[in-house]
Structure to design on (728 residues):
C-alpha cells in the first residue's frame, strides 16, 4: 500500500492504482473524455492532467494512466493544471464547436467561445473527436481489431481496414455504445428490434462486467466452463469412476490451468455467437492425434468444456488431459455427444469390473476404469459402427436391456445395473455427483427431457449453503429455476451471461442466487426486442405454459408420470460398500443426526441399506412437494385446473387429460 | 469449546478468525460468494479485516454458475 495526498486529503492505495482511480475514492472529480474503466487508459484527450510532486520535483502528468508506485502529493486544481485544461478545451471547441460533451467540459472552465477557428473545424454535433474509445473497446472488450486509427496529424481518423466495409464486423454495437459523441451509429440492424438503444444499454452492462469482473469470478474468457473442474473436485462433486466418488487425488491433471498453460492456444472470440463478450469456448490448435483415422494429423479441437473434461476424464477413471482432447476431437468428428459417451463408457467400465462384462463379451477389450487405449478404441468402433462400441453407443438404457437379454446375468446383477446406470428417461446424466443434494437429484430426475442439469443446478444452494432445507423450499427452487431456465430455450438465448458473471452489487440484492440484475436485463431485452412490455413474472409464465404443455405431450406418449421421474440409486446414495466406506464419517453422521438411527454394532452393509431406505423415501416426498408446487396431481400429471390457469386448456390437451385423469 | 456456525455447520472458533480463514478451513474455492455474519453483509475487501466473534452465524452463500 502507498500513502498519498490528493488536494490535501490523505489516502492509502494499492501500488499501481492510477491517480484518477485514487481520486475517485476520495470523491475528487478529475475531468476525462477518453477514459472508461473497461478499456486501458489511453491518455488521448489529456484533460485529466494533474500536478504530481514526488518530493524531488513537480511535474504535470495524465492521471488516467499514472500508476502510483511511491508516496506522492497530487494537486488536481493548481493554476497551471486548470490553465492547461482550459487551453485543451479551447482547442477542442475550435475544432468541434457543437459537440455537447466538449461544450459541457469547456463551460466548466469558462470557455464558451474559442479565440481561434481550427482549420479542420467540424460543425457536426456528432463529430468524431478521436478519443480512441471505440478502437480500444473493439480490441479490449470484444477481442476484435476491426476498427483502428489511420493517418497522422490532421488526417488521423477511425477506419476499418483499407477504409472499406469489413465483413468481420457483426454490428455488436460496442463501439457505438462507448462513443461519447454519437459519431458511430447503428444504421443497419438486421434484427430490427423495437428499441435498439435499450438493448445496447443492457448488452453493454454485461460486456462491462465481463471486462471488469470475469477474471476474479469464473474466468470464462480465460478458460471457459473448464474452470469448474477443480471446483467440483474440491467440493466432492467431480464424478469419478461412474459417479462412485466426487474427487480424486489425480484430478489436478484435469485442472483448467493445465489446459490453459499447455493446450489452449487461441484467446479469441470463439464464433459461438459473433460479438459475444463472454467468448467462453476455447480452442486447441496443432494437436497431433495418436489414434484413429486421422492418426498423426495435427488438428484443431473445439473445447474442452467442463462436461467433456469430467465425462471423458475422471468419470472413466482417466486423468490425462491428452486423452480428453483426443476423445473431444473424435466425438465432435463422429457426431457423438461427449456427455453420453463419457457416462455410457463409465457404466460399461463398472459393469466390466463387476463381472457383468468380460473380455469375451467386449470383443477382447479390457474395460477397466483408467484404460485409455480401450476408451479410444471403443469410440472408434462407435464411429465405424462395429464391435462392442456399437452397443455402448446406444446408451445406458439399451445397454442394460441388451446385457440382461444377451448375457446370463443373475437378478442381483440386473438390479446392480439399474442402480449404477446413470440415466433418467433414457438420457445419460451430465457430470455432477448428486448424492448429497436431494434438490439436485430432483433437478435431474424431474427434468422433462432426461437427466440434464440445465433445468436446475441446485447443489450449492442445497448441499453447501443449506438454503433450502425443507421439501417445500426445494420444491420452490424446482419450480422457479426450471421455469426461468426453460425461458432461455424458448427465446434461443444463451444462459451463461445470466450466472457466469454477476453484477458488482449482486450480493446486496434480496435474492442473489437469482441474479436479479440480470433477470431485469433479460426482461428488458425481451421488451426492447419485441416492443411488448413484460415483467419477471410474465417471463416465468411464458415458460410455465410451454413446460406444462411439454409434460402433457410426454404423458400422451406414455411417459410424463411419477414412474418416469425415477432416478438410479447411484444418484441418491452409495450403492456399494466401497462407496459407503469411502465417505463413512459423513453417512454415519447423517444416520445418527437426521434419522436417529443407532449405528452401534451395525455393519457397513446394514448402514448402507438403511440409508438407502431413507433416501429413497425422501426422493418420493420431494416428488410429492414438487408436483404440488407445479400444479400437478400426485402422479405428476398437470391438472386441468392448472392448464386453465395457464390458458393452455387447448382441446387436444384437455382430451389427453380428461381421458386419463 | 467455542464454535461458530458456517452455513449451519458447527466450526471451532479461533481468535482473530477472519472470513478468509474460514473459507480456507472449509476449503471453499468457488469465487462467487455472498458472505453475511449475523445477518450483516461483508464486502470482499473486508474478508481479511473483519474479526469473527464466537458463536457467530456465518453464511457463505455460493452462487450458481455453469451450463
Amino acid at each position: 500500500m502507498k500513502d498519498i495526498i490528493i488536494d490535501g486529503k490523505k489516502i492509502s492505495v494499492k501500488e499501481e492504482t492510477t491517480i484518477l482511480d485514487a481520486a475517485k475514492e476520495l470523491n475528487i472529480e478529475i475531468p476525462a473524455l477518453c477514459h472508461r474503466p473497461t478499456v486501458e487508459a489511453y491518455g488521448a484527450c489529456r484533460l485529466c492532467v494533474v500536478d504530481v510532486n514526488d518530493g524531488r520535483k513537480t511535474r504535470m502528468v495524465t492521471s488516467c494512466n499514472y500508476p502510483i508506485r511511491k508516496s506522492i502529493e497530487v494537486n488536481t486544481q493548481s493554476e497551471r493544471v486548470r490553465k492547461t485544461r482550459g487551453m485543451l478545451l479551447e482547442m477542442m471547441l475550435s475544432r468541434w464547436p457543437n459537440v455537447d460533451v466538449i461544450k459541457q467540459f469547456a463551460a466548466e472552465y469558462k470557455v464558451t467561445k474559442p479565440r481561434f477557428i481550427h482549420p479542420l473545424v467540424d460543425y457536426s454535433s456528432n463529430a468524431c473527436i478521436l478519443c480512441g474509445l471505440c478502437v480500444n473497446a473493439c480490441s479490449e472488450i470484444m477481442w476484435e481489431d476491426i476498427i483502428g486509427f489511420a493517418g497522422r496529424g490532421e488526417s488521423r481518423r477511425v477506419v476499418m481496414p483499407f477504409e472499406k466495409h469489413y465483413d468481420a464486423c457483426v454490428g455488436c454495437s460496442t463501439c457505438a455504445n462507448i462513443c461519447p459523441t454519437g459519431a458511430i451509429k447503428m444504421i443497419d440492424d438486421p434484427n430490427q428490434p423495437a428499441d435498439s438503444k435499450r438493448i445496447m444499454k443492457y448488452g453493454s452492462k454485461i460486456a462491462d462486467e465481463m471486462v471488469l469482473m470475469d477474471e476474479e469470478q469464473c474466468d470464462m474468457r480465460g478458460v471457459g466452463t473448464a474452470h469448474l473442474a477443480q471446483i467440483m473436485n474440491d467440493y466432492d462433486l467431480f464424478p469419478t469412476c461412474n459417479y462412485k466418488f466426487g474427487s480424486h487425488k489425480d484430478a489436478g491433471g484435469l485442472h483448467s490451468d493445465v489446459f490453459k498453460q499447455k493446450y489452449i492456444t487461441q484467446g479469441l472470440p470463439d464464433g459461438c455467437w459473433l460479438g459475444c463478450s463472454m467468448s467462453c469456448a476455447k480452442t486447441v490448435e496443432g494437436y497431433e492425434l495418436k489414434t484413429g483415422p486421422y492418426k498423426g494429423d495435427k488438428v484443431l479441437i473445439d473445447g474442452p468444456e467442463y462436461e467433456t473434461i469430467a465425462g471423458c476424464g475422471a468419470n472413466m477413471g482417466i486423468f490425462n488431459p491428452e486423452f480428453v482432447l483426443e476423445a473431444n476431437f473424435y466425438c465432435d468428428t463422429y457426431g457423438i455427444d461427449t456427455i453420453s459417451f463419457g457416462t455410457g463408457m463409465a457404466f460399461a467400465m463398472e459393469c466390466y469390473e463387476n463381472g457383468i462384462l468380460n473380455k469375451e463379451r467386449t470383443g477382447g477389450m479390457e474395460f477397466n476404469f483408467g484404460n485409455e487405449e480401450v476408451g479410444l478404441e471403443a469410440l472408434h468402433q462407435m464411429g465405424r459402427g462395429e464391435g462392442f462400441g456399437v452397443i455402448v453407443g446406444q446408451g445406458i438404457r439399451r445397454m442394460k436391456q441388451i446385457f440382461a437379454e444377451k448375457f446370463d446375468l443373475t437378478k442381483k446383477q440386473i438390479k446392480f445395473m439399474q442402480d449404477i446406470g446413470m440415466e433418467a428417461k433414457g438420457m445419460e446424466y451430465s457430470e455432477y455427483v448428486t448424492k448429497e443434494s436431494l434438490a439436485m437429484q430432483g433437478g435431474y430426475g424431474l427434468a422433462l427431457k432426461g437427466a440434464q442439469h440445465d433445468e436446475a443446478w441446485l447443489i450449492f444452494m442445497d448441499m453447501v449453503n443449506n438454503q433450502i432445507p425443507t421439501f417445500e423450499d426445494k420444491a420452490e427452487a424446482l419450480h422457479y429455476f426450471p421455469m426461468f431456465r426453460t425461458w432461455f430455450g424458448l427465446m434461443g438465448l444463451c444462459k451463461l451471461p445470466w450466472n457466469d458473471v454477476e453484477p458488482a452489487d449482486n450480493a446486496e440484492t434480496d435474492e442473489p442466487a437469482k441474479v436479479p440484475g440480470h433477470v431485469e436485463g433479460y426482461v428488458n431485452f425481451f421488451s426492447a426486442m419485441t416492443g411488448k412490455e413484460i415483467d419477471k413474472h410474465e417471463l416465468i409464465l411464458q415458460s410455465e405454459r410451454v413446460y406444462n404443455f411439454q409434460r402433457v405431450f410426454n404423458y400422451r406418449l406414455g411417459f410424463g408420470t411419477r414412474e418416469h421421474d425415477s432416478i438410479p440409486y447411484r444418484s441418491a446414495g452409495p450403492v456399494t460398500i466401497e462407496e459407503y466406506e469411502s465417505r463413512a464419517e459423513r453417512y454415519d453422521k447423517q444416520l445418527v443426526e437426521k434419522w436417529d438411527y443407532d449405528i452401534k454394532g451395525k455393519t457397513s452393509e446394514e448402514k448402507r441399506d438403511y440409508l438407502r431406505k431413507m433416501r429413497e423415501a425422501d426422493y418420493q416426498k420431494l416428488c410429492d412437494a414438487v408436483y404440488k408446487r407445479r400444479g400437478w396431481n400426485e402422479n405428476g400429471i398437470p391438472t386441468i385446473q392448472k392448464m386453465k390457469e395457464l390458458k393452455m386448456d387447448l382441446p387436444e390437451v384437455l382430451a389427453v387429460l380428461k381421458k386419463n385423469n | 469449546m467455542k464454535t461458530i456456525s458456517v452455513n449451519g455447520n458447527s466450526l471451532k472458533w479461533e481468535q482473530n478468525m477472519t472470513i478468509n480463514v474460514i473459507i480456507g478451513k472449509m476449503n471453499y474455492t468457488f469465487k462467487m460468494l455472498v458472505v453475511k455474519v449475523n445477518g450483516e453483509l461483508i464486502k470482499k475487501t473486508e474478508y481479511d479485516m473483519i474479526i469473527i466473534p464466537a458463536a457467530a452465524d456465518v453464511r457463505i452463500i455460493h452462487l450458481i454458475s455453469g451450463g
In short: The helical segments of chain B are 19-25.
